[in-house]
């Protein structure tokens, strides 16, 4: 076994041919034991976030990966990537030349997992509910171009948009647009706890201890009707405290598949192929890491401080010392493989330079060293995060221009703190909602940005984002997208660091691993099966 598969960037449309030789999804998967999948994602209900799995609230890759198995959307990103295709819908499309009216016809015979019939009214209820609740996670911003939702009969849904939005079909493929049963979800209140009821390929049963899911069991939904072929009858997703514990479980055979987040050292070991019973699948990924700034905070309010950090940080050194071949430096919020990418930060700052950083601070009359604390989460993005911030700290402090401390916190306290504006500078990751440049810009820079950043640029919000969305041909949007990235490089409300690949490790009798994740890090459990590997 030991094989390592390199998947070319999905955006160039070459995914399916490259993957054909490794782990097909042709196994019937109709019987046998549940496939056990390990993750380090934590699913916790807290006072600040009591409804982690409500589609109107959930907005991180872990909770979305639960919802994508259980809650059906009108559209879905296809197996081989590319433009979204109908899922709960039989057909969808813009019905006007201005991309402001979008109509969908539902599939015949759709039912929720309890057998209740799905109608257009349920779709309207689900989307209007998420928009009305407007949870502090910021996920409802994905629906902010909707003006009204109209139904015609039981199977027609029409979305009237406030402004043209060529990315709208992608947004209908995200869990916030998931179809839920009004019987189970109150109109104006989030659903606390870990129950999920939808019409997706699986139903969910959660084993919970201390308000945290320790095992999520996904059972094939007999009422599911959509485009997906489900290659197994049951999957157990088991949450581990860290990558080391998850890796030991794979070695012992307690789990069949290991997903996010593996430690860099584990990936290096698996890449070497020392264990004949385990395979590593390497895939192109669109994950990015970045620093975010509270631009109202006195320490970083002057953009010269943020520019000096951009001038000093050595992305290549971070990648080399922490992640190796698993990542590459990123000089824009938009990854290099996405249409509309521009190396705006490199174009403005070039190579790291203490002299140039000092000149920026001197010109702005900033007293040095600038004292800062960089905050990071200890348990959400993997074991490399702490080391990454230690490298960042050393780079900034070695310049003599900064006096930086670093502080790590668990995700359950980190997120509420950053949303309440308690951090001046903090590190985050982004797994795209959909593979389009808009989704690396609008969520950070628009009025309802999910980070609650105080930074506002009227030209970005009022002109450039709307103009880019009017272009159905995304290449035609490049000039507006590039200008947004250039403004970000100058103002530095966010400082991109690197983009990473993604990996799945599995024991040799598991098939479908090559499609277990798509480029947006969507976990596709339905692809997994058992059989003789090919």
UniProtKB/TrEMBL annotation:
Superkingdom of the source species: Bacteria
Solute-binding protein family domain residues: 83-449
UniProt family annotation: Belongs to the bacterial solute-binding protein 5 family.
Annotated signal peptide: 1-20
Main location: other
UniProt-listed SUPFAM superfamilies: Periplasmic binding protein-like II
Pfam hit, one: SBP_bac_5
Name of the protein this chain belongs to: ABC transporter substrate-binding protein
Cellular location(s): Cell envelope
Keywords: Signal, Transport
The species this protein was found in: Streptomyces longisporus
